[in-house]
Specification:
This protein has about 110 residues and is mainly α. The protein contains five helices and no strands. It has a single domain, classed as c-terminal domain of poly(a) binding protein, CATH 1.10.1900.20. Helix content is about 75%, strand content about 0%.
Length: about 110
């Protein structure tokens, strides 16, 4: 019985990886084994960093809120404590956006807390 090869599926699988490696430098973009390793590593990084991005943005929002609240003589923890106790339902993303792009609205929130 002759050896059975499925070159159609093999080529499709390779083309898929080479297509994902488009834009990579050197042999990473067109040599099968190197491209496969590069794409696998890139997929691992993208999976990990989808989680990390959420942490980074939360950290950025906290930093912005802290900087803005200190202008009005309050630390971040005091500010957030008063936000919670006054039942103001604004999340950190919205508060950070107000602090950056609409300082008078942020000041109005601070005045309400004092």
């Amino acid at each position: 019985m002759p050896r059975s090869l499925n070159s159609v599926a093999s080529r499709k699988r390779r083309k898929k990886i080479i297509k994902l490696a488009k834009g990579y430098f050197g042999r990473r973009k067109n040599v099968w084994t190197i491209a496969k390793n590069a794409v696998e590593k890139a997929m691992q990084y993208s999976y990990r960093d989808r989680k990390t991005k959420k942490r980074n943005f939360r950290s950025l929002w906290i930093t912005r809120i802290n900087a803005a609240s200190r202008l009005y003589g309050m630390s971040y923890s005091q500010f957030m404590g008063k936000i919670k106790s006054n039942k103001i339902e604004l999340n950190r993303k919205v508060l950070a956006d107000l602090a950056m792009n609409n300082p008078q609205a942020f000041k109005a929130i601070v005045d309400k807390l004092k």
